[in-house]
Every structure is written in structure tokens, then in C-alpha cells.
Amino acid sequence: MQTQDKPMNNELKKRAEELGLNHIKRHIFLCCDQTKPKCCSQEVGLAAWEYLKNRLKELELNHPHEFYRTKANCLRICTQGPIAVVYPDGVWYHSCHPDVLEQIIQEHLIGGKPVQKYIISTD
Known about the structure:
The protein is of the alpha+beta class and 123 residues long.
């Protein structure tokens, strides 16, 4: 099957600009709303997500600023969750409860220095 490259339409371009995609420094994905919870209970995962979402908003760091967040269904680690990964750094974290997320926000997202204590793996 052959595909054609299509130019970006105005609606797509407008949406990308609204989200500030060209200004994002770091993007955190949080495993928190699994179809079949394994790394942590769904309640624990969703509580972590609410903390992350609200804290970034409170600090005025949510889009269209330098940091972006995404709720992931599963990041496939399936133990010691909630699990998070921060890109473009490729740093993976375990045990991302609100207190750990606060450290990640302050030290890694804002400060640029990964939180060694909770790192699973890096690129």
C-alpha cells in the first residue's frame, strides 16, 4: 500500500501552536489508568495522575509551557508503580506517588537533574 505525504492542514497547525508543541522541553508519561492494573492499583495510579496534573497547573507549568504530561494506559514495567518516563531524557522512574512526583517535578522537570533514587533505567 502506497501512502502520500500530505501537507499539514491549517487545523492541525493551529492545534499544535495552541498546545505550544514547539516549546516543550520535557514530557512526562505516567502509567496510571491501566485496563488491567498490575504495577499498582487503579486508585493509586489515578491519585498520582491527579497530583501530577494539578501540581503542574498550580505551578503554571502545564501546556502551553515547557512541560507536557500524558496519562499512559501501560508502560509495560508492571511492578513498583506508578511508573513514569520523562522524555527527551529517557529517564524511567518507579514508585511515582505524589511525594516522588514532587521530587521529579522540582528536580528533573524544572531543574534538569534526574532523581537518582527512583530511576529504573536511562537511555
